[in-house]
Amino acid sequence: MASSADLLQKNFYRDLIYSPLDAAGTPNTDLLVKIVQIIVPDVAAVPADKVSVKEINGGITNALFRVQGGDTAVRVRIFGGEGMIDRDLETATYCAMADSGLAPAYYGRFSNGRVEGWIDRVQPLTLDTMALPDVSAAVARELAKVHEYVLPENLQPFYSEPGMWKQLREWHTQAQQGVPSLKDRWGADVAAAFDAALIDKVGPTWDRSTAEIDQLEAAVPKDCEAGFCHNDALAGNILRNPDTGELFLIDFEYGGANYRGFDIANHWNEWAGGTKPEHNGVCEYDRFPSSEQRTAFCRAYLEQLGRDSNDAAVAVLVAESQRFVLVNHWYWGLWAINQAVLEGISDFNYIRYAESRLGQYYRVKAEYLD
């Protein structure tokens, strides 16, 4: 199989690099304008001093900006999560999804970022709006559409099987190897915060976390239905037009071949939030969808696919997805630990988020793992 670095990425300016003005991350607006004008012809036709730049709040992996010149507005994504995401594969996949209409337009890529289409007159969901019955049903339908998506032939070898267990094991190894560097990287207080919040959850030698993941892998059936999944359908990654009710899924950077139940369970866990600045890592699990809400979600999902949506069929999908609620806590718990190693916890408390996710895992394990 070819390397992901060999994938054709349209309009890729490999030597064009964005950097902020200082160590504090102050946006370099002149450089952002220059990058967009190189990649987007309609913005290039507008004088640079007439192009506006606005930073978008809400992302914790990437820095996001809205850049507008004349009637053309775009989203600029500055990649974060160094080493966590294969950006060559992710960008090639995003481009294909944009061509199919499942993702906003793709304009081009530069060394450490990408220029995407901007969707007007939409707002990201909130934890409150995500739980509204009509909105929840609409999310279910959008996830079903994504799960039906067939990748182009050149991408299929990279997504030949669900990558969830492989990713979990890789992130587990990365975390085990990275945590000992917390003190040198970010100071004794950060290392102490990890020990206080998480050492009991992963075990002093990471033996407990290894055993938990082993148990989950043995408990989840290997023949669960799989397809292309979003894997990160949190409130901020779902945009809604309040006038029409139309929904748009964005930010497919964690997308890939996976079990549909994982994608559904991931969205249910995201009802609890935790990643917004005001939450700073604390999830509100009293918001987790009730049995009735999970049932309604799965019914809308099956109806979108044109499949049987009787009580028995819905119950099967609910039970299947509930298995992955537990796996999902380890997925994002380990992700957060690795983010703490890479970025520290001053801008966002990744350690607290990992504690929230893994703490909930142990609280509900007996309920979902029978």
Any idea what the shape is? globular
Widest β-sheet, arrangement of strands:
1-5-6-4-3-2
Instruction: Estimate the helix proportion, in percent.
Output: 40-55%
Q: Average pLDDT across residues?
A: 94
Count of strand segments: 11
- Biggest β-sheet, characterized? 6 strands, mixed
Number of helices, where a helix is a run of at least 4 consecutive DSSP H or I residues: 13
Q: Unreliable stretches, pLDDT < 50, 5 or more residues?
A: none
- The Rg value, from CA coordinates, equals 21 Å
Which class do the helix and strand fractions yield? alpha+beta
Binned strand content: 5-15%
SSE order in H/E notation? Answer: EHHEEEHEEEHHHHHHEEEEHHHH
What is the first-to-last residue Cα distance? 39 Å
Can you describe this structure?
With 370 residues, the protein is an alpha+beta fold. Helices cover 47% and strands 13% of the residues. It has 13 helices and eleven strands. The longest helix is centred in the last third of the chain and has 33 residues.
List the helices and strands and how they pair.
Layout: E1 12-13, H1 29-39, H2 41-44, E2 52-56, E3 63-69, E4 72-78, H3 87-100, E5 106-110, E6 113-117, E7 123-124, H4 127-130, H5 133-148, H6 164-178, H7 182-186, H8 188-202, H9 207-219, E8 226-229, E9 238-240, E10 247-249, E11 256-259, H10 260-270, H11 291-305, H12 311-343, H13 350-368
Parallel strand pairs: 1-5
Antiparallel strand pairs: 2-3, 3-4, 4-6, 5-6, 7-9, 8-11, 9-10
Helix pairs in contact: 5-11, 6-9, 6-12, 8-13, 9-12, 10-12, 11-12, 12-13
